[in-house]
Amino acid sequence: MTNQCEVLPQLREAYKDYFMIGAAVNKWSIEAEASLLTEHYNSLTAENEMKFERLHPQEQQYDFEVPDKMIAFTKEHGMSMRGHTLVWHNQTPAWVFQGDSGHPADPQTLLMRMKSHIHTVAGRYAGQLYAWDVVNEAVSDKEEEFLRPSPWLDILGESFIARAFEYAHEADPKAQLFYNDYNECVPEKREKIYKLVKSLKERGAPIHGVGLQAHWNLDFPSTDDIRRAIERYASLDMLLHVTELDVSMFAHDDTRTDLTAPTEAMLEKQAERYTQIFSLFKEYSAHIKSVTFWGVSDRYTWLDGFPVRGRKNWPFVFDVEQQPKQSFWNLIDVARS
């Protein structure tokens, strides 16, 4: 075990020979956790500020203030940035899908709006972001469905996915373009994601990689399923980015709300889990080029109150005081081993 009295090593430096270390940020965390960000991370992702509803709330209105500040921050501190996300069924304003007299938009109108949005957003940041999550969560979790029902699919059909990649490539030819999804290691969904990405590649769509969201917990998914997913996607000769990593302290069926801090047993198990996960990432670093935590420290996580209202979670390697947990030291040990 690493001696915790030594000078704190930097995560980004420890993994510099393997992959980038990223964090999702918002307009609060990029200021409140700036020191932690600049010390340990070399890639940022906007948690929500680049999503359709934030950037483009009305057809003739864009708001780039916060993303512009984030990109300025990365440039000032020699960091890189991933774009998230251009096309998603969620957090897209209703006007995008509306036509005249309350009817749904016709295919031509919706396609024009998609193209205009992608060209405006990806075009604005062309050459400044190294990757984009172009299409997010289009695959269904339901066993009998391939693609998730959404206005994009209802109006445009499956072709909306390939079109989004084409428009993103037109807007920023140098950016790496990713399909991004969760439950990416569940065997049934893994095969559907594989099928989608394979079909896009065979059609000549400009897709470069698969984003593994990696919203995992202390027990799920198994390391065997993570390994199988990495190998399955890599077999398509795709880049892999771990895009939204967190390790929840709670299993899916755990509804406890009485904890005010993680127990020692939970912290130990989380540290073991991070060791297993990053050992796999390091083993497959020929394919995995970026690993992004979906947050910075336990001070804030989207898992606070989700899926159990009023419950605090502690999914990261830095605690609520922004101090390293045993999980952090285990990651350093993995990098050095």
Tell me what the structure shows.
The structure is a single chain. This protein is an alpha/beta fold. It contains twelve helices and nine strands. It has an eight-stranded parallel β-barrel, surrounded by five helices. Helix 9 packs parallel to helix 10.
Task: Please sum up the structure shown.
This protein has helices at residues 11-14, 29-32, 34-40, 52-55, 65-76, 107-124, 151-156, 159-171, 187-202, 223-234, 264-283, 326-336; strands at residues 20-25, 43-46, 80-88, 131-136, 176-181, 209-212, 215-217, 239-248, 288-293. The protein is of the alpha/beta class.
Which SSEs are present, and which pair or pack?
Layout: H1 11-14, E1 20-25, H2 29-32, H3 34-40, E2 43-46, H4 52-55, H5 65-76, E3 80-88, H6 107-124, E4 131-136, H7 151-156, H8 159-171, E5 176-181, H9 187-202, E6 209-212, E7 215-217, H10 223-234, E8 239-248, H11 264-283, E9 288-293, H12 326-336
Parallel strand pairs: 1-2, 1-9, 2-3, 3-4, 4-5, 5-6, 6-8, 7-8, 8-9
Helix pairs in contact: 6-8, 9-10, 11-12
Q: Features of this protein?
A:
alpha/beta, 8-stranded parallel barrel, 38% helix, globular
Which percent bin holds the helix content? Answer: 25-40%
Work out the strand percent: 15-25%
Task: Please state the average pLDDT score.
Answer: 96
- What general outline do the C-alpha atoms trace? globular
Q: How would you sum up the major sheet?
A: 8 strands, parallel, barrel
Poorly predicted regions are: 1-5
Radius of gyration: 20 Å
- Give, in spatial order, the strands making up the sheet with the most strands: 1-2-3-4-5-6-8-9
Class from secondary-structure proportions: alpha/beta
Counted by DSSP, the helix tally is 12
Distance between the termini: 11 Å
- The tally of beta strands, per DSSP, is 9
Topology pattern, helix = H, strand = E: HEHHEHHEHEHHEHEEHEHEH
